[in-house]
Structures are given as structure tokens and as C-alpha cells.
Amino acid sequence: MSFSSRVKEEIARQQSSARHCCIAEFAAIFHLCGRIRQEAGGILFLEIHTENLTVAEKSYTLLKNTFKVHVDVMVRNHNVRLSSVRYSLLVREKKAVTLILKAIKMLDECGGLWGGFQQVHQRLVQNTCCKRAYLRGSFLVAGSITNPEKAYHLEIAVQSQQYARQLQMLSASFGVAGKIVERKKYYVLYMKEGSQIVDFLNIMEAHVALMELENVRILKEVRNSVNRQVNCETANIHKTVTAAARQIEDIRYLQCHLGFSQLADGLREIAQLRMEYPDGSLQELGQMLSPPISKSGVNHRLRKISQIADQMREGRNC
User: Fold this and answer.
1) Which residues are registered as beta bridge partners of 86?
2) By CB count within 10 A, which of 169, 184, 200, 298 is most buried?
3) Tell me, what DSSP letter sits at residue 149?
4) How many CB atoms lie under 10 A from the CB of residue 282?
5) Given 3.30.70.260, 3.40.30.120, 3.10.28.10, 3.10.25.10, which CATH number is that of 3-205?
6) pLDDT tens for each residue of 258-302
7) How far is residue 188 CA from its own chain's centroid?
8) What are all long-range contacts of 190-193, with beta carbons under 8 Å and residues at least 24 apart?
9) Rounded to an integer, what distance in angstroms lies between the CA atom of residue 100 and that of residue 46?
């Protein structure tokens, strides 16, 4: 089972104790995969159509527990080769249809269709808990999240730009600012920062998935930190070895063409130590001198030796 499926199963198990939260969550589901249909006799009925069993089960639970209505369930296998199954939940009773549509603010008090499929009615999300429930329902139907071990990416894809912006505002009310991009016929609210996704999972109360993602983030951060440290130390070692090799080459050149006896005492001492300890650090070489000198002092003397060697090479080339 994918990480995205596990998140959806977890949030589908959330059971809000407050009826207004259940209504908000069902409204989100109905806005994204519900339809108001009309039979031959002109009678309206409601249908929720989905290929996701988790969405179908959650919709059925909300309809039965929140609205106490009769629900007909139809299961169709429309592609045997792909084993693809469609679930349809139908509410046909007139009173039940009216009750539900009024509750999710798609019917006004006079019975007129409000037609709010493409926007979130503010009365549904007045409370913080209802905002959480609405976002939970939206993600359940239209959301997805990448396995955090591969990448950080969470999105909710809807067909209306206005609706996507309203979901963005709901998320922003919790301090999580997602971005919107147009992709083919969809408008996608997405987040790519690990911390944002953690916060969004917290909004939906997907705490198990949140802890799993946090564990992955911690491991990644530790691994990256170790890699950075190793790379830094490797670079320093390479720099030190390269510098030491260049210093020894200059010292040998002077030894062959000038002789150590022509060098000042301080330069001669450090040249002899460098030849004797080719792998020694500047600080270690400085401590071997009598009296000891600092790392910068050793570096100054070795640079002076390199300057003399370079001057001699230039003179010989001339």
C-alpha cells in the first residue's frame, strides 16, 4: 500500500463528534465527487461516484451517521482487464435529498438550488474544527502525497480555480501557504516543503502519517549532515595533501639548486621538518620547532620558501 493510501485510510478513520464537522467533511466529498441527478419523472436524487473504496466507505458512514438516511450502494466493474471498480452511493428519498442539500448549503431555505459545487460556503467552515474536516474531505477525494523517502510533495487537484484558491485560503488560515499551478484541466494546490506537509498532515489529524514523515525527515537530515561533514573533511584533506606536495616539491628544488645552507635558519628548520614529516599539519610542524611557533608562522615560512623557489625557476628560465 502506498504512503498516500495509508494517509487516506488514516484520515478516513477520523470520526468527528460534532455534527457540523461531519457536515463540512461530507460537503467537501460531495463537492468533488457528488452529483445532483434527475430521474425520468423529474425527481432529484444524489449520487456519489468514486473508484476509491476508502472514499465510498467514508461517504456511506457520514450519510448513515450524520443524516440517518437510506443509501443504495452500487458496485460496477467497468474494466475487467484492469480490475477497475466504480462505487456509486445513491440517496433517492426526497426528504433525505432536501435535508442533505440544505445541510451542505446547496439549497437555500426556500428550496432553491444554490449551486455551490465550485466554491466553499463560508457557513460550512466558520469553526477551526470544520476547516480541518473540510480539508480532510478534500484530500480524501482529490489529494495525493508522495512517499517522503523519495520526495516531499502533497497536492489536491480540482477542476475550478476558484475552488482551488478557497482551499488554499483554508490551508493558509492554519499558517500553511500552498501554491497553485494549472495542470491540463486541473488546478492543483501543492506543497513541496517537508515542514509544510507535516503541518498539513497535522491539520487533517493524520498523526501516524505525520510521525512517519517526521522520522524520514530526521533520517534525511542526519544523513545529509554527515555527508556534508564528510565532504568538507575530504576537501580539507585534499587541500592539505596538495599543499604539502607542492611545498615538498619546492623544498627539493631548493635543495638541488641552492642547498639548505643558503637558507635562513628559520626557513632551513621548517624545510627539514616538512621533508621529514610530509603528512604533518602546519600546527604539528609548528609545535616541533624550538621554540614552537604558530600555524600562521609555519605557513609564512613555507610561503617564503615557495617564493624563493619560484624566483629561482624564473631566473633559470631566463
Assistant:
1) 76
2) 298
3) T
4) 22
5) 3.10.28.10
6) 887 777 878 888 888 888 888 888 888 888 888 888 988 888 888
7) 15
8) 190/153, 190/154, 190/155, 190/156, 191/152, 191/153, 191/154, 191/155, 192/152, 192/153, 193/152
9) 9
Q: What's the pLDDT tens digit per position in 20-63?
A: 999 999 999 999 999 988 887 778 899 999 999 999 999 999 99
Residue whose C-alpha is closest to residue 47's, from 76, 21, 74: 74
pLDDT tens, residue by residue, 150-176: 999 999 999 999 999 999 999 999 999
Q: For residue 317, what pLDDT is reported?
A: 63
DSSP string of 174-190?
TT---EEEEETTEEEEE
CB 43 within 8 A of CB 31: no
Amino acid residing at 105? K
Q: How is the chain split into domains, by residue range?
A: 3-205, 220-317
Helix then strand then coil, in percent of the chain rounded to 5, is: 60, 15, 25
What is d(CA 252, CA 226) in angstroms, rounded to the nearest whole number?
A: 39
Cell (9 digits) for 53: 473504496
CB-based contacts of 178, cutoff 8 Å, min separation 6? 168, 171, 172, 189, 190, 191, 196, 200
**Which residues are within 8 A (CB) of 279 and not within 5 positions of it... i.e. 6 or more apart?**
241, 244
* β strands within the chain, DSSP E: 34-38, 44-50, 72-79, 84-91, 143-145, 154-158, 179-183, 186-191
